[in-house]
Amino acid sequence: MLSLNKFLQPSWRKILLSLTLFCGLVLLLWPARVLRSDNFVFYFPNSRHVVPLEVIENTKYLPFLEVLNLVGKLNGLQEKRNTLKVGFANTHIELRADDPRIRLDKETMILSSPIRVSNGKWMVPSDFLTTILPKLTGQSVKYQEGTNRIFFGDVKPGSFTLRLEPESNGARLTFQFTDKVAVRTASENGKWLMFLGDHPIEPLEQSFQLHNPYVTEVRFDDQDGLPKLIITPSTAGLNFYPVLAEGGKVLRADILKPSPPQPPPPTAPSSTTASAPPTPAPSPGAAEAGPATPPGTLLPVVALDAGHGGDDAGAHSRDGVAEKDLVAQLVARVRQALLSTQKFRVVLTRAGDVNETFEHRAVAANEAAAAYFLTFHAGDLGGGSPRIAVYTYQPPGLPLPLPGGEARLLFVPWNRVQEAYLDQSRQLAQTLQQEFTVLVGVKADLPTPAPVRTLRSVNAPAVAIEIGTLTPDDDAGPLTDTVFQLHFSSVVAEVLAALQGGGA
Question: Contact at 8 Å (CB) between 487 and 493?
Fold first, then answer.
């Protein structure tokens, strides 16, 4: 056996030093892969769609098959180890992994960066949108380099300008829009959100940094397909009063310090009415958008779980839509619908394209003391689409007694936590199913108990919601349809708001 002194002789030390330097160089020079996940919005004359965006080696990449399915229909697909051949309309497309060249019939075009395969999906750099997509579709394309949105065909996005004016006890933001907007407000994480309706918007600036004692930033965001302004106040406790005027083309938002209660007048000592905070008088013809919930209000939590992720893509459709991406898109819409009620905070158990463990998903909900937990999936539900199935947890044996019962347990095993909420979970499932049945063109199956692993350790009323049909034999168009997703998310938000209001 080598002694420690012999092992540390000069010759061995040189070898160890060389290996250390080599490993350091490998880590330093190894190409960076996916740095972050984001969304990219496609605007069409009558619809909009959100697809996941990846940044690989500082280049924006989009899922090739999903983009093609947004602008047309595939009529053939052949995939080998490093080659993908696709029939699109009357064009034969061929591309290779780690190669910037794309072959369109007999013509070869070169992209700015090589094509990648990430988590089993073929990814193309963003300049594919402006160099190749117009040739394939014959449609005009409007895309501003560096942004995460693109406009197809006759879509003419609006824009706006911003002016900041000081007030005696606050500040006024004035937005002048080129097109009419319809504003509704919400608050999230100490910020105010103003949703601007359905008309596409291409801002002149994505973010406005304001050096003001009442507001620090105004940022435009449409990552979920819903154009909105996000206003960051400089401090907590300010009042927010938005007013829409001039036919919906001018939006004024006053950010004011609360007025202190006024002492009663000397001539009326019995009066104890405190003066209300001043509200700006709306201009003639103005429609009040309504004040948002003050930032910092403590609200119950809803935990939303997008199934699968990362190298686990789940089911997939004939037109290349993966379950992990579909349910992530659906969760984003449900999240927004819940926040719009101003009755909930939202926790996401999966952020980005990662494959979280069952335990991680349950812990994320339990640590947030979630009032409700919903996990979303998509798969084969048989004929007809869209179709919805709601599941509750089915324990392997007799359920645990409810907390507070005669046989109450002091310590509940981790794998049996959900059993104390089975009745509440069934009530939630039944209410959701009943409301899903009113959606036009949607079939909603009766709630079913099943051994859904994701629900097992959740310490709250919990259900699994599956939409379908998502199979290699069917296109996913009915499930990715914006109208369906918005109606679906509205139903979920309304049901939870009603149950919460009723003290469920």
Answer: no
